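Researcher: For the record, we're logging two predictions in this thread. I'll number them. Prediction 1 follows.
Model: Prediction 1, sequence and structure:
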Amino acid sequence: MERHAVWEFTDDRGHVAAAGDVPLRVVAYIQAGATLWDHGIRPVGIFGSFHDGDAADPAKAGTLPLGEVRYLGSGADLGLEAVLAAEPDLVVAVTYGGGQVYGVDPDVAKHLEEHVPVVVVDVGQGRSLTAVRERFAGLARSLGARDRDGTELERAMRDLEQAAQDNPGRVLALSPGGPDSVHLARPAKWPDLSALTALGVRTVEPPQGPGANWNTAGWAQAAALTPDIVLVDSRANAAAHEQYAANPHWLQVAAGARLLPWNPELPASESAHARFFAQVTGALRDT
């Protein structure tokens, strides 16, 4: 007798993931895993991207307890066998558009879906922070999570909006590239930075040039933008501070601005977004 699915979820590719029972064993990309954790769902395994190494990047993990969740690998080192060995009922991944599963070899992703349901959530530039957050909230509800009341996030948004009115500091987001280069974020291409702009924060737009999400430039160009607050990519794949610490233009940036760590792959939960907004609020009030 054919068993009908009791759990279904249509992902951002338009694919329907289905299972005979509500999935309990979830393997997820680290950003998705951190998001589900904030909803009270503990993944049995997480994986990284082609930018990651043989250990989970704590900057991406949010409040996810990395010591308690199995890390399955990243990029080319993430094989089908490693994922299936965790015995998942569901795999949750992300995409930056086009439906391609981010951080997973296309051949691995293809064969993975032959063994286990896969849900892919679009976190790319075409989505607002609210839309991404609501998609993950819907997925979490389908897995048994309770809705959050939203009070913390609403308060954080009001506080940020007021701080932006009272303290019009200019916010630049960047990812260090090395001793002589830096990637300057285009605010409209990042859901979290776009959300800051929508709340009245004066986000800094880098010069026109190649690169959809970033303008890759020298540290002199970053200094010339004279930001009051700098969001500095804190992920492991960004250049380490010691690589550019002696650059005179970086020193100029650091002397003139409040520096905040920034995770461009922010967990898509109310609590993570509230923390991000509160961090920027505090920096604005200190300018």
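Researcher: Logged. Prediction 2.
Model: Prediction 2, sequence and structure:
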Amino acid sequence: MSRWTPDQMPDLTGRRALVTGANSGIGLVEARELARHGADVVMAVRNTVSGEEGARRIRAIGVPGTVTVEELDLASQASVHALADRFEGPLDLLVNNAGVMTPPRYRQTPDGFELQFGTNHLGHFALTGLLLPHLLQAAAPRVTTVSSIAHHAGDGTVCEGNPREGYDPQTSYGRSKLANLLFATELQRRAAAAGSKLTSTAAHPGVSATNLVASKDGMGAIPVVGTIAQWGVRLAFPGPDKGAEAVLFAATTAQPGSYSGPTGFRETRGAVGEARRSQWARDETLASLLWERSEELTGVRFVL
């Protein structure tokens, strides 16, 4: 079987997609490729100036789909609700892509959640639930959530939401990405049980040379560390075009409930295929408990 590439994506003309964190890195590539295949793409970003620049670059290559920018700070439940409140019409595809990675010191969102858990998981959990009525207006709605090989560092304490006591950047990031994967799997399980037309998939990009490493919300909070790490990643790993492949495959082609990623060296790179899930990621009881806890923390309920 030949290697899957975004050129094999189906025609998306007439479909509407929303990609979080689409102003840079793999999110920008995802937005570009979806628009290149005809989708009307909403780039939901925290920095709208950067988002508009990204949108301009996508339009400049002559894509058939439209590209618009919306403000969204996933660390703020108020911002998530504001975007959902002003969103209108059907939504065919939601790509839960944005994320924060390994801030060196414990930080909280405005709502009092640990930054990675509150942004990576709870922000996307609430966004998906609030946009669900728009998704269900579409003929074949799809939600794709981006996890990470770092989810293997997560454990059964994921429902605790990364407490301040004993905070460790890598472990806490791993738990947040485990939460992403558990959410995607549980969403598909609940949709199937309800007889819903919604499809949920998950993917991870492997290790990709993006600005995520140098972000001031992550390792870039220590400038020297962020700069060194960013250049090291750029030298050793592929860029965002390759990193986005598994996410685009999951968003357009993969089977319901699947988890896609690179299949090369320790899943850091290579051709897209089925990704490995940790023991905790396969735990249906843990997924259900996390779902219930997420409903309690966000106040968002899903009606499938």
